[in-house]
Design brief:
The protein is of the alpha/beta class. Helices cover 41% and strands 22% of the residues. It has 2 domains: 11-134, STAS domain (Transcription Regulator spoIIAA, 2-Layer Sandwich), CATH 3.30.750.24; 144-390, 3-Layer(aba) Sandwich (Rossmann fold).
Length: 393
């Protein structure tokens, strides 16, 4: 291919057995739209001929993309991902290239996965392939299996025979009109409610009747529809409360702040500071949360949940009430938590654009029943789902 180069041409190579297309941009300089088109036109021709989708493994070592053609490069890459991709990982990016891709990811809501070496990127792709292969497995193979759950309050049936499977490492969304039973389902999963019938199996073990504290110790954390923070406490102190389950020293040592207790607190403090950096809230770390704008309070609540080191993160309408910019930020953080930390996420959200962009699987509830499930594309065009949302006859 004819992209301008200092040492060699951009190249691509198919690893058929692994479903991987390896793209080598190392030492390449892209200065014009034409150079970009030459490469992508040829690669897309090959992918079209293969009649299948691919994982993309991209080497950016010392690749230079001139600022005036970055958008075109990004648009061509996005088109290839949407049309032919199963997932993308990148490695050996310069700080400048990484920053540019992250900025594009923020506006376009795609997953900006970066790894230091080719070997680490291959491991990440293997994990992506494993997750996809597990998709659709029964509850005995699912990471979290919800089977025939019923929940009633007096004569009101909040949940009626709902079941679904969540695979390790995926973003799984629960959607439906107001009053569909979505939050009740999150409360069952978190242990706050106990189902009158049905099973909750996590990582191969039945945990249907566990109390909320026992569920939290298994690795479940959540945010709430209505913000549940200590308004008089600072951002830092609110997030530190998420570390309480991780503290092992006795109360006397904690009170005196001596020896092992002091070292433990320092360790937990460092973990919280990493989360603060990750969610870009350094500037408000000492601000009482009651003074913060709504969008930042939502971010602090997410930080507190992350402080629990969750294996499964339950997000109940994390973007409710946010403006467009705040939603874009939250979407980016959710994707990063999922991809960089490998956290399984169960999401309730009314913004269908967000759901369709972020989720790998969706279950739809209405009046306490499951009316559909599948991929975002499956449920988007399901006439039963359309009627539930639009009220059509």
């Amino acid at each position: 291919m004819n992209a301008k180069r200092t040492k060699k041409q951009a190249a691509s190579r198919f690893h058929e057995a692994l479903e991987i297309l390896e793209v080598d941009f190392s030492h390449i300089i892209f200065e014009t739209r034409e150079e970009i088109d030459v490469f992508f036109d040829e690669v897309e021709r090959q992918m079209e001929a293969s009649q299948r989708r691919w994982y993309f493994l991209v080497n950016y070592f010392e690749c230079v993309i001139h600022p005036e053609v970055w958008k075109h490069f990004s648009d061509r890459g996005k088109h290839a991902n949407i049309t032919y991709g199963l997932g993308t990982v990148r490695f050996d990016c310069s700080d400048k290239t990484r920053a540019t891709i992250r900025a594009n990811a923020k506006t376009d809501k795609f997953r900006a996965n970066f790894y230091a070496t080719r070997e680490e990127a291959f491991v990440a792709l293997a994990d992506l392939r494993r997750r996809r292969q597990l998709s659709g497995s029964d509850w005995t193979k699912a990471y979290l299996g919800v089977t025939d759950v019923h929940l009633s309050f007096g004569g009101v049936k909040a949940i009626q025979g709902v079941g679904f499977n969540v695979q390790r490492g995926e973003i799984f969304s629960i959607i439906g009109p107001n009053g569909a039973g979505k939050t009740s389902m999150i409360n069952v999963i978190s242990g706050f409610y106990r189902p009158s019938q049905g099973r909750i199996v996590f990582d191969g073990k039945d945990r249907t009747h566990y109390h909320p504290a026992a569920v939290a110790k298994l690795g479940f954390a959540r945010t709430f529809q209505n913000i549940a923070l200590f308004k008089g406490m600072t951002t830092l102190d609110n997030i530190m409360t998420g570390r309480l389950l991780k503290m092992k020293r006795n109360f006397f040592l904690e009170a005196l702040h001596l020896g092992p207790a002091r070292r433990e607190e320092m360790k937990n403090r460092r973990y919280v500071e990493d989360i603060i950096d990750f969610l870009e809230i350094q500037a408000i770390r000492k601000t009482p949360v009651g003074r913060l704008p709504y969008g930042f309070q939502k971010r602090v609540e997410l930080a507190r949940a992350l402080a629990m080191e969750p294996k499964v993160l339950l997000l109940d309408e994390p973007m409710a009430g946010m403006n467009l910019e705040e939603k874009e930020d939250m979407a980016r953080f959710i994707l990063d938590v999922n991809e960089e930390w490998g956290t399984t996420i169960i999401l309730i959200e009314h913004d269908m654009g967000v759901v369709m962009d972020l989720s790998s699987s969706v279950v739809v509830m209405d009046h306490g029943e499951k009316i559909a499930d599948g991929t975002p594309d499956d449920v988007r065009t399901n006439p039963v789902v359309i009627r539930a949302y639009l009220g059509e006859d």
